Amino acid sequence: MTLTFRAASRKDLECIVRMLADDPLGATRERYSVPLLRSYVRAFDAVRKDRNNALIVACHGRDVVGVLQLTVIPSLTYKGASRALIEGVRVDAAVRREGVGRALLEHAIERARKRGCLMVQLTTDKARPAAKKFYESLGFVASHEGMKLRLDRA
Predict the structure, then answer these.
(1) Residue 88 lies in a domain
(2) Cα–Cα distance, 17 to 30 (Å, whole number)
(3) What's the number of domains the chain is made of?
């Protein structure tokens, strides 16, 4: 499958939210509807304005078939090295297992390298053991124990 990669545009947002909601975990925390919730539009605009964030889509022809968010985090650790965080990786259900995810991650890793990042990190939900194996096949190592604290919205 021939893929191209580009920054997501506002016209891609509906497709992106559909992909985010289209799996068992996403279905519990996302809401795909037309029109989209305004919160998705606000978040998209905030990501687009932040030079350390990129919302990258994978396209097959004109169709958006994958998405991820790449965030560059400046840091004092590792002698002031930046690191990249990959978040919100999704591939359209119609093309899963056709190499889209691998190509999209490889593209993001190369972008992080070009931005001077020392490392790329991500988290994967423990309910997704296949995703963990996929990330390990790309060279990621489960070297740390991740923790999250959910904050209720005021």
Answers:
(1) yes
(2) 8
(3) 1
